Amino acid sequence: MHDCDETDLRILRVLQNDGALSVSEIADRVGLSQSPCSRRIARLQNEGILKGRSVDLDRRKLGFNAIIVARVKLDKHDKDALAAFRREITVIPEVQYAVLLMGAFDYDLHIVVRDIDHYQTLLHHKLVSLPGVKEIESSVVLEVVKKTNALPI
């Protein structure tokens, strides 16, 4: 763990709430002048603690009306099989989140699509032909109850 003092943590909390704030606005909210705040943000970026500032788009307003959770079981679990699957899954833009699991399934994928027809096309033309795929179990998300990337700092 990196050594972050309380001022660093205040900066990170502010940025977690709104990554689009200017350095001046961040400095005002954490009680620093602009120059020291800017230096701290640069240090947090250089240390890899602050990995950028993202934008949260409204998927529905952009026509992506469904989220699918697909659990994938691979037929092999060696290093090459996992690497091949990982390489292929990262280039599919609809896959928003992909994690390697311990348990009954190997990967959990969160996929954003325009509708069920879009998912069916994606499933038949891309997902089932990914390297090593043995089984895919899909669920439709009915409601997103909580969505955050914020850490409890």
How much is the average pLDDT?
94
Order of adjacent strands in the largest pleated sheet: 2-3-1-4
- Overall geometry comes to elongated
Which strand-content bin applies to the residues? 15-25%
Low-confidence stretches: none
Order of helices and strands: HHHEHEEHE
Largest sheet: 4 strands, antiparallel
The number of domains: 2
| CATH class value of the largest domain | Alpha Beta
| Shape-level CATH architecture of the largest domain | 2-Layer Sandwich
**Whole-number radius of gyration?**
20 Å
Verbal overview:
- The protein has 153 residues and is of the alpha+beta class.
- The chain folds into two domains: 6-46, Arc Repressor Mutant, subunit A (Orthogonal Bundle); 60-140, Alpha-Beta Plaits.
- Helix content is 35%, strand content 20%.
- The protein contains five helices and four strands.
- A four-stranded antiparallel beta sheet has the order 2-3-1-4.
- β2 (95-100) and β3 (107-113) form a beta hairpin.
- α1 (6-17) packs across α2 (23-30) and α2 (23-30) crosses α3 (34-46).
- The chain starts with 5 loop residues before the first helix and ends in a 13-residue tail after the last strand.
- The model has no long low-confidence stretch (mean pLDDT 94).
